Amino acid sequence: MKYTTMIFVRDKGRMCNNILQYGHVYAWGREHGCKTMSMRFAYKYPYFHICDTPYHNFPTYLFAKYAAKWHLIPTVEFHHLYPDITGREATMQNSRFVLVEGWWTPWHDLFLKYKQEIIELFAFKDSVRRTVDTKLRQLPKNHLRLGVHIRRGDYKTWHDGKYYFTDRQYLAYIQQFLTLQSDREVTVCVCGNDPEVDKELFKRELKECHVVFPEGNPGEDLYLLSNCDYLIGAPSTFTLVAAMYHDLPLCWIADADAPLTDQSFDHFNHLFRHIL
CA–CA separation, 132 vs 223, rounded Å? Predict the structure, then answer.
């Protein structure tokens, strides 16, 4: 009797990198009749439904970690884009247990095939929804919601700071969006990973709209952004995953000097194939 392969998925990236990486492997596993388990969501990011599903617990995480460390189970790496992954896929399909790691998992078509299942796995827990829904009810009714994600931190050095933008550069994009939507009232929801954002500057420069700083944890910020109408941010998986839930139009600011137009916005199914 043939056993069912169990694939443990590991990555060292941030939360939304982990969501996308696991989504690729989950989709491959669904296609080939293999079970999968995300090691990160067994202990690190407790905001999602997946954390309460089978195998997503700390003992299973420890088993996978040390079984791979002691070479009791094989490890399949995707640290680069490989022209031929036939051997890697064979190991994944023919091992009783196997650990998969690395960002460059390549199954975009399968991800899209099982995207709704992936979204359901990463549905937000009730505690996250309750907290954010309370904030959303306090926003002005009938306003268009623009979610802005200010991504700084390690972006100061990543790609030589190419996507490390100032408050005023984000503001310029927001103001251009307001011009595009001049016939609508707008609420701007500003989230991010930089505690030094000049909130007073945003409020002073954006007097014509309602500006809020939700200041939630990563799960709450992601859920809030996913409930906006449009998203703007530096290229990152955080805004990409936020856009995934409801297929929101997303503008990645690749060049802060480029003008914002209606054509600046794209959708998940295209953008996730072209992560910068």
Answer: 7
Residue 276: CA count within 13 A, CB half-sphere: 16
DSSP string for residues in 210-229? EEE-----HHHHHHHHHTSS
Last residue of a domain, one of 57, 92, 121: 121
Q: Do 227 and 102 lie in a common domain?
A: no
Chain mean position to CA 89: 25
Of 62, 97, 121, which one is at a domain's C-terminal end? 121
- Which residue range(s) make up the domain with 12? 6-121
The encoded tokens of residue 239 equal: 């805004």
Q: Is residue 25 part of a domain?
A: yes
How many structural domains is the chain composed of?
A: 2
Question: Any idea which residue has 């690749």 for tokens?
Answer: 254
Q: What is the pLDDT along the chain (276 residues), one digit of tens a residue?
A: 456 799 999 988 899 999 999 999 999 999 999 999 999 999 999 999 999 999 999 999 999 999 999 999 999 999 998 989 999 999 999 999 999 999 999 999 999 999 999 999 999 999 999 999 999 999 999 999 999 999 888 888 877 888 899 999 999 999 999 999 999 999 999 999 888 899 999 999 999 999 999 989 999 999 999 999 999 999 999 999 999 999 999 999 999 999 999 999 999 999 999 876
For residue 250, count CB atoms less than 10 angstroms from its CB and return exposed for 0-12, middle for 13-18, buried for 19 or more: buried
Burial 62-83 (b: 16+ CB within 10 A, else e): ebbeebbeeeebbbbebeeeee
pTM: 0.94
Beta strands across the sheet bearing 210-212: 210-212, 186-192, 144-150, 230-233, 250-252
Strands 186-192 and 210-212: parallel
- Give the residue from 246, 254, 4 showing the smallest Cα distance to 151: 254
